[in-house]
User: Which sequence fits this backbone?
C-alpha cells in the first residue's frame, strides 16, 4: 500500500496525550448506549435479529478503542507564516489550510470529560461552512493562548470577505 | 430638456443620501400589507355574513340581509360609528408606522429605524455591501414605488428600504454604491454631466409627467419603459435571452423527462385496465403545466449588463427586479451544461455570493443563477462581466477549453488510474491556476467548469480515503461561502494534490493581500497612481482594455 499523504516542513504540533481518554470515553459511552438499545430490542421487543446488531456494535466499539490512540495522535496543526494547517484521520485523511485573515471567529468548547482532564476544543470559523477546522484536546491554557495568537494574526492580516 | 429632468431626479436622489434621516414613500403601509388587510376583511365579511347574523341576532333560520337587520333594530348609527372608528384606527396605525419608519444613508452605513411598540434599528456598513436589489412588484409599480434591498453577508442580514419612489430608487442605489466604492461625492457630480442622455421617447414621456396633470401618463410610461433603461449600461455589455431559447431551456429539463416517464407509465397503466390511475394522477400531471408558464413569465425580459458599479441582473414582465453586484462580491462561478442542452450549445452560469436577496431570482430559481441559459458567446460575455480581471484573449481560450475540451490539454489532469473511480469524466477532470484564479473542470455527461478567484477563497482541503490511497489518488476541495457552486476535484494524482495544496495556499494569501475590491474605485485610483508598482502589477496588467475606460466615465 502506498504511503499516506504528508506535507513536508516542520513537525506537526500534536494535541495533548490525555485526549486519548476523551476519545475512549466517547466510544465507550456511545458503544454502551447502542448495545443497550440493541439488547432491549432483542430481549424486550423480541426481534431475534437484534443480536447480530449487538455483536456488530460490540466489534465496532472494540476496534474504535484499539485505534483510539492512533486517531488522537493523527490530529495535528501547524502555524505557518500566513495560514493555519490542520490534519486529522488515518484511514480517511484530511488536510486543511486556512489563511489567518479569513477568520470570522474562534470558539472554545469544553465537554464534560475534557473539563475533568483540563482540555478544551478550539474551533476556527470562516465564512465557509465547510472549513470545519476544529482542534480538539488542547490543554486549556494552550487553547486560550492559541486563540489570542490567532486573533492577533488575523487582525494583522485582515482581508475582506 | 432631458438633462434637466435627469438632474432633477438625481438631485432628489442625492437629497435622500445626504446622511440625514428620511421617510419612505407615503404609500408604504398600504403596499406592505394594507391592501392585503382590506382584501382579507372583505373576504371575511362576505363569507361570514350568515354566521354574523347567527351570532349577533340568533335568527339562523332567517336568511335576511344583515343590513336589513341593522335597520329594523335601529342600530345603523352604532354600526356606522364602529366602522368609522375601525377605519380611523387603521389609518392612524398606518400613519404612525410610516412616521416611525425612517432611513439614513451616510458615508459609512445605511440605517433603517422602524416599529412603533418594538423599535428596531438596523445598520449595514457600506464596505460590507454584497449587492443591492431594486424590486418592483406589480401593485407597487401601479403606485410608482420600488423596494430597495441592501444585502450584506449573513443570514437574514438585509436592510430593506421599502418603499421608495420608483424614479429615485435607481439613483439612491447609484449613490450608495458610489459611496461604497470609495469615490468622494464631489468628484462624482463633476463627472456626472458627461453621462449619456436618456432615449428621446421615454424622456419626453417622463418630462410631461413632471407636471401634475400627467400622473397617469407617468405611470403608463413607467410601465411601458424597458426594464433596462438604455443609459444604465453600454449596449455592447448587455446580454439578453430570447424568449424562444428560454422556452426551450425550460422544456428541456429533468422535470420534463420526469413528466414524460410519468405520463407513459400512466398510459401503460390505464391501457392495462387500471383506469383509476388516470383519475388519480392526470389532474396533477396537467396542473404541472402551470409550472412551465410560471417559470417563463418570471424570467421574461432577462438582461445582464455591466455597469460601472458592478454587474446588473434584471428581469420580469409585470413585477420587475434587478440586482447590482459590486465587483469582488462573487466567490465562485460555475458554467455548466446538462446533457439535454448540448445539441443546442446552451450553458448556464451560477454563482456563490455571501449575501442573498430575499427576492427569488428569475424563473423562481434562487438568485444565484446568473445566466439561466445562453450560448457560448453569452457565457463568455457574462464571465467577462463577473470576473473583470480575467477577460483577456488567453483567459478566454482557457475558459473555452474548460467548457468544451474533451480533456488532456493545458489543464493539469488526472492520471489514467483515476478511471477506476471516474470511468467517464476522468479525462476532463483537471485544474489550472492563472493570475490568481483557479479553474476546475469536471463532468463528461454534465459538463462543468468552476472558476474561483483565489482572493475570495476561505480555506482549502485535500482528502484521501483508503481506495484513493491504494490508487495513489486524492481529492481536493476549495471552500468558499455557501452556494450552489461546490468547487472540488474528485480525483487527482496524490503528488499533484500536494503540489496543488502548496500552490493554492500561498496563492490565496497573496491574492487576498493584493485584493482591494471592497473599495473598488479607490483601488482603481490607487492603481492608476502607483502605475506599475510591483504589488499591483498583476491586477493592473491583466485588465488592459476592460476597466480603464470604465474608470474614466465613472460617476
Assistant:
Amino acid at each position: 500500500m502506498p504511503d499516506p499523504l504528508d506535507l513536508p516542513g516542520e513537525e506537526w504540533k500534536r494535541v495533548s496525550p490525555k485526549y486519548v481518554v476523551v476519545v475512549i470515553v466517547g466510544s465507550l459511552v456511545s458503544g454502551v448506549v447502542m448495545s443497550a438499545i440493541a439488547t432491549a430490542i432483542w430481549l424486550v421487543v423480541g426481534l431475534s435479529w437484534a443480536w447480530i446488531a449487538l455483536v456488530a456494535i460490540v466489534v465496532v466499539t472494540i476496534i474504535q478503542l484499539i485505534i483510539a490512540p492512533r486517531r488522537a495522535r493523527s490530529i495535528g496543526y501547524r502555524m505557518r507564516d500566513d495560514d493555519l494547517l490542520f490534519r486529522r484521520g488515518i484511514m480517511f485523511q484530511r488536510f486543511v489550510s486556512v489563511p489567518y485573515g479569513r477568520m470570522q471567529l474562534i470558539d472554545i468548547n469544553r465537554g464534560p470529560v475534557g473539563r475533568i482532564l483540563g482540555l478544551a476544543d478550539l474551533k476556527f470559523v470562516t465564512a465557509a461552512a465547510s472549513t470545519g477546522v476544529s482542534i480538539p484536546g488542547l490543554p486549556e491554557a494552550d487553547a486560550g493562548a492559541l486563540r489570542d495568537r490567532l486573533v492577533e494574526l488575523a487582525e494583522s492580516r485582515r482581508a475582506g470577505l | 430638456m432631458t438633462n434637466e429632468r435627469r438632474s432633477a431626479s438625481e438631485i432628489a436622489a442625492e437629497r435622500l443620501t445626504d446622511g440625514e434621516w428620511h421617510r419612505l414613500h407615503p404609500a408604504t403601509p398600504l403596499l406592505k400589507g394594507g391592501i392585503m388587510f382590506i382584501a382579507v376583511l372583505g373576504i371575511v365579511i362576505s363569507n361570514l355574513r350568515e354566521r354574523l347574523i347567527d351570532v349577533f341576532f340568533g335568527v339562523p333560520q332567517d336568511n335576511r340581509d344583515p343590513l336589513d337587520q341593522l335597520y329594523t333594530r335601529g342600530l345603523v348609527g352604532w354600526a356606522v360609528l364602529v366602522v368609522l372608528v375601525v377605519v380611523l384606527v387603521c389609518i392612524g396605525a398606518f400613519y404612525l408606522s410610516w412616521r416611525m419608519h425612517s432611513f439614513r444613508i451616510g458615508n459609512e452605513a445605511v440605517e433603517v429605524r422602524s416599529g412603533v411598540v418594538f423599535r428596531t434599528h438596523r445598520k449595514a456598513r457600506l464596505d460590507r455591501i454584497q449587492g443591492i436589489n431594486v424590486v418592483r412588484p406589480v401593485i407597487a409599480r401601479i403606485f410608482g414605488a420600488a423596494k430597495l434591498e441592501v444585502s450584506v453577508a449573513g443570514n437574514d442580514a438585509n436592510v430593506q428600504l421599502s418603499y421608495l419612489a420608483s424614479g429615485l430608487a435607481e439613483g439612491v442605489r447609484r449613490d450608495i454604491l458610489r459611496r461604497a466604492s470609495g469615490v468622494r461625492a464631489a468628484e462624482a457630480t463633476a463627472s456626472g454631466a458627461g453621462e449619456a442622455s436618456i432615449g428621446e421617447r421615454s424622456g419626453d414621456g417622463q418630462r410631461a409627467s413632471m407636471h401634475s396633470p400627467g400622473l397617469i401618463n407617468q405611470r403608463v410610461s413607467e410601465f411601458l419603459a424597458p426594464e433596462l433603461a438604455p443609459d444604465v449600461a453600454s449596449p455592447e455589455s448587455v446580454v439578453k435571452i430570447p424568449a424562444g431559447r428560454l422556452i426551450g431551456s425550460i422544456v428541456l429539463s429533468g422535470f420534463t423527462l420526469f413528466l414524460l416517464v410519468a405520463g407513459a407509465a400512466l398510459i401503460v397503466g390505464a391501457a392495462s385496465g387500471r383506469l383509476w390511475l388516470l383519475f388519480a394522477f392526470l389532474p396533477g400531471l396537467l396542473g404541472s403545466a402551470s409550472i412551465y408558464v410560471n417559470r417563463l413569465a418570471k424570467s421574461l425580459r432577462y438582461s445582464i449588463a455591466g455597469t460601472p458599479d458592478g454587474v446588473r441582473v434584471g428581469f420580469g414582465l409585470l413585477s420587475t427586479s434587478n440586482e447590482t453586484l459590486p465587483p469582488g462580491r462573487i466567490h465562485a462561478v460555475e458554467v455548466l451544461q446538462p446533457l439535454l442542452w448540448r445539441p443546442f450549445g446552451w450553458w448556464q452560469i451560477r454563482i456563490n455570493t455571501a449575501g442573498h436577496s430575499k427576492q427569488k431570482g428569475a424563473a423562481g430559481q434562487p438568485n444565484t443563477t446568473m445566466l439561466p441559459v445562453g450560448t457560448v458567446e453569452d457565457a463568455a460575455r457574462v464571465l467577462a462581466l463577473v470576473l473583470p480581471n480575467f477577460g483577456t484573449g488567453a483567459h478566454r481560450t482557457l475558459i473555452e477549453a474548460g467548457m468544451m475540451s474533451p480533456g488532456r490539454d493545458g489543464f493539469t489532469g488526472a492520471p489514467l488510474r483515476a478511471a477506476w473511480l471516474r470511468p467517464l469524466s476522468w479525462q476532463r477532470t483537471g485544474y489550472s491556476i492563472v493570475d490568481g484564479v483557479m479553474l476546475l473542470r469536471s463532468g463528461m455527461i454534465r459538463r462543468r467548469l468552476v472558476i474561483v478567484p483565489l482572493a475570495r477563497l476561505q480555506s482549502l482541503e485535500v482528502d484521501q480515503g483508503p481506495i484513493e490511497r491504494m490508487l495513489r489518488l486524492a481529492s481536493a476541495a476549495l471552500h468558499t461561502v455557501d452556494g450552489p457552486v461546490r468547487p472540488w476535484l474528485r480525483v487527482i494524482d496524490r503528488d499533484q494534490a500536494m503540489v496543488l495544496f502548496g500552490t493554492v495556499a500561498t496563492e490565496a494569501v497573496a491574492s487576498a493581500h493584493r485584493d482591494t475590491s471592497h473599495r473598488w474605485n479607490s483601488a482603481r485610483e490607487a492603481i492608476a497612481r502607483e502605475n506599475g508598482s510591483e504589488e499591483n502589477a498583476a491586477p493592473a496588467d491583466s485588465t488592459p482594455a476592460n476597466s480603464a475606460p470604465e474608470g474614466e466615465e465613472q460617476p
